[in-house]
Amino acid sequence: MGRDAETEKDEMKTHTWNETFEECLVTYTQEVDGRFIVVEHVPARVCRETGEQLFSPDTVSRLQAIIRSRLKPARVIETPVYEFAAQAA
């Protein structure tokens, strides 16, 4: 049974977060013109508790350059797409 938004909001006010970040290599995805771009082995600081990923300004600049370049990718993958609204509850 799910909790309502007000309960979660109240818990967020009283919870003390102890975030611990570690350096990792992650897979970055972005949708561009209806197509997904996947960039592997991207350096990021990742929160152990929440999974939040933080990228340095230099990394963001490189990601943008890679995506804009439209160079031939290292490989191409096929991805299934599902429609959430069409699924029965």
Verbal overview:
- The protein has 89 residues and is of the alpha+beta class.
- The longest helix has 13 residues, at 57-69.
- It contains 2 helices and 3 strands, in the order H-E-E-E-H.
- Strand 2 (35-47) and strand 3 (53-54) form a beta hairpin.
- A 3-stranded antiparallel beta sheet has the order 1-2-3, covered by helices on one side.
- It has a domain at 44-70.
Briefly say what this structure is.
With 89 residues, the chain is an alpha+beta fold. The protein contains two helices and three strands. The chain is flat.
What are the main properties of this structure?
alpha+beta, three-stranded antiparallel β-sheet, 2 helices, 30% strand, 89 residues, single chain, flat
> Please, how many helices?
2
Query: Could you tell me the mean pLDDT?
Result: 87
Please report the distance between the alpha carbons of the first and last residues: 14 Å
How would you describe the shape?
flat
CA-atom Rg in angstroms: 18 Å
How does the helix and strand content classify structurally?
alpha+beta
Approximate helicity band? 25-40%
What is the topology, as strand order, of the major beta sheet?
A: 1-2-3
